[in-house]
Every structure is written in structure tokens, then in C-alpha cells.
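Morning. Coffee machine broken again, so started the prediction first thing and wrote up yesterday's gels while waiting. Chain of 313 residues, entered below exactly as on the submission form.
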Amino acid sequence: MTTTGLDTVIRPARAKSAARAATVRRKQGFQHGGWFVAPFLALFALFVIWPLLRGLYLSLTDANISGDGANFVGLDNYREALRDPLMWDSLGHSAYFTLLVVPCITVLAFLLAMLAHHIERGRWLWRLCFFLPFLLPSTVAANLWQWLFNPGTGMVNHVLGTETPWLTDKAYAMLAVVITTLWWTVGFSFLLYLAALQGIPAHLYEAAKLDGANAWHRMVHITLPMLRNITGLVIALQILASLQVFDQAVVMMDFTPGPEESTRTFVQYTLEQGFTSYRVGYASAVSIIFFVLIAAVALARMWLLRNREEGGR
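Came back before lunch.
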């Protein structure tokens, strides 16, 4: 088939016209879409961007809780924070809590999801029981377990047959907070795993059975690889949430840092500086340091996920 001179002229013209039309459609779509996202952007700027910028400014001053007489001090608050042993102790407590909670809650949520997914009788009841504690307010869960850990009337020591001072001994106080957190928050990760399990195609297991794979091989070679992305999501969400632990630690210890300050978390330390010591400027500096830490964890998780995806191609 030969190409005439007319075709040579018409085809580039049509391509230019199509490109112009696509550009017009993109502009129109952006204009219309902008009105839909404008309310969110306004609220995001009001409640996220502005407080962040305000906190950054206050961190460079010696502002107190009254807001009067704030003087610019530069990076003095940051220097003091980085030299403050209480801040590092609080960060260590939060990191220790995170190291205990994240692996335990990931494994426990996976096992509970496997149980709820494969059990036949009373499946809805098992799912309800595993998820229901997550619906409780943090103060209710903390007060409940504070009573259960009570050395005199609590059920934990009665069941274990011991007299462990869970809430008054430095060696056990943070462990009590960890156990409470596991019971209270495992339902969310359980739900994520359960939804992911239901999304795995059944024909993969059927083909594996025909090839002679037992239950262990099917879990290792099918279930776990198919849940790799959801596991990464669970770990990332739990790390970010655990680093910000506050409610249950404070309520269970009756609004104190715990025995020998063993349960004072980073968030609690920040609030103490701002609302107990009235040092808003210094508390803002500590908050910015914590924000940088959380952002670094989130970016590291994104970097690892991207490298894993590129390596799998």
C-alpha cells in the first residue's frame, strides 16, 4: 500500500490535533478535580501544615504556655534536647516498646487470621471476638488491664499462680503495657490479614495439593509470599503507631511515668515539658525531633519497598 502526499500532510495534522485535545481534557480535568480536593487541602493546611510551621517557629523560641514574652533562641532548644538524658531515656522506652510489640502483633495477627479463615463452625463469632477489643477506647482497655494486673484482686496473678508486681516493678511495668496493647490492637492487623487471605486465589492451593504439597509447604510457598505486601504494611503501621504510644502507658500507671520512670514514653515526655514544665518552645523542639524520626522511619520503609519491588522484576 502506497502513501500519498495527502496522507503525509493529514497524519501529522491529526496527531497534533489529538495532542491538543488531550491537553485540553487534562486541563479541564484538573480544573474540575481541583474543586473536589479543595476542601481536603484547606483542612490539611489548617490542621497539619499550619501547626507544623507554628511548632517549628516555637521550637526556635523560649515560649511558655502563656504565650507571652517569647524570645528567639535559635537552636538552643535542640541542643538542650539532644543533651537531655531524660529525652533519650524516653526514646529508649518507646523503642523498646516498639521492638516488643511489632513482631508479636504481626505474628499473632497472622495466626489469628489463619485460624478465622480456615475454621468452619462459628466463623463469625471467632472473627468478632478477635476484632472486638480494637473497638474499645484506649482508656477503657487500659483501665480493664490495670484491674487484671492488680496484685491483690487481679485475675492475671490468680491464673498464673504468682504474685508478680506487674504495675509497681520496673522489670514488669513495660511488659504489662505491651500485653495490654497486644490484646487491644491486634484486631486491626488481624482484619488486614484476613482480608488478604480471602483474596488469595483458591486454584493455587488446589494445584499445590495435586502436586503433593502438604499444609506446611502450601503456607510457606503460597500463603506467605502472597501476604508479603500486607505484612510490610502491617509492620510499617505498627512501627509508626508503637513509637507514638501514650494512652495505655499513662492510664495504667495512674498518670505517672511508672516505677522508676520505666514507662515514660517519648510522647509523654514531650507533654510533660509543654504542660507540666510550661516550656512550650522546648516541647516544640522535642516534637520536631520526633517528627523527623517518624518521617525517617516512613521514608526508610518506602525505600525498602521500592528496592524490593525493583529487585523482584
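The radius of gyration is 27 Å. Going to sketch it on the whiteboard this afternoon.
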